[in-house]
Amino acid sequence: MNRLAWVFSGGGAKGAFGAGVFQRILEIYPTLRWQIVTGTSTGSLIAPFAALADADRARTAQLVELYGGIRKKDVFQSNFLFNLFNLPEGLVNLKPLRKVVNAALPLDAQAALAAGTVDLVVPTVNLQTAALTLCTQERNQQRIRDWYAQQQIPVPLEFWPFADLNEALLASSAVPLGTAPIQNDNRRYDYKNKSKRHQYVDGGVFDKAPLREALALGASEAIVVLMSPTQPSPKLKPFSNLIEVGLRAVDLLQDELLRGDIDNLRLAQVMYDQGVSAEALAAKQIAPEVCGYLHALESSRAAATSAAMANPQMQPILIEPPIGIGSGEDFDSTVADGWPDAPASGKAVPIMKARIAYGQRVVDALLDDAGSPLRRVLDKAVVQI
User: Fold this and answer.
1) Residue 127 lies in a domain
2) Which domain holds residue 189?
């Protein structure tokens, strides 16, 4: 059977664009169904609402309201009391965001996610073990382990307890340098005869748009929502201190990792069409990421029946802003109505709401074409009532 995945990338405040994309698609396709949701950084905050919305469409409005109303003070708290000999783990911490997340996703919502039919995956990175650490329902963990092992992807893999999902969302949102890591009480190590907690940061360090996890869980189609254009966006401004330079470098590196991930999947699709097998590629011990995607395509073909899936290849549909939508740290500014593609004079609106509206307009433009790949994927995932 077809398994549709939503994949949400990182991007800080630009996640409002993804909220707008998700809301608009469900408005046009009210009976759409999906089976997998993954997200990293700001995408990890969207992902639980997207997973819940399959059964409870009210979660979509909650997501849009959350992103439309959130401001910088609701996300960050300064760690400004430091000196050169006692530097903090990050310039800011996420204590305000913890309150927002816990209020939006209380225990009953977390229980619904654990028991629900939609598979949810949120990646973080363990600074001590250098492991990609995934928070997902327990039912998915062995399947993902097996997939990574089979593909020989050279990334250590760990799992975060799903019962502690909200802390994983914060860890996935902790951008290195700028934000203090999240410490996990469940994981400790000895350092100089003292017990220390493991520290976790933004999953985008390894996985800016966690597409591999969607494949590991059997996705046959994926809608990948990117919060920035796939081509690097110029920023004609000076980066005046170590932190600004570091954050810009991290952002560019994550963008490059994302482009590489997409290119690896496309290369695997070409090799699949040419009859190259994953086994033959693995025997040469090269390109393990490409080999992993190639094996996923073969697995989809083997699992498909003639009635269930006419085209078993994973075909990721990328939805991205065609132009830049500002900085991921900008939660508070106002912009002209219609920004960024067609600014109108006069009325000013909060940038978060403008990003939501832009995501909605981008979806409308993509669906205007009756033959668009996005429309094809959505039409297949609609439940007739």
Assistant:
1) yes
2) 4-79+88-233+313-383
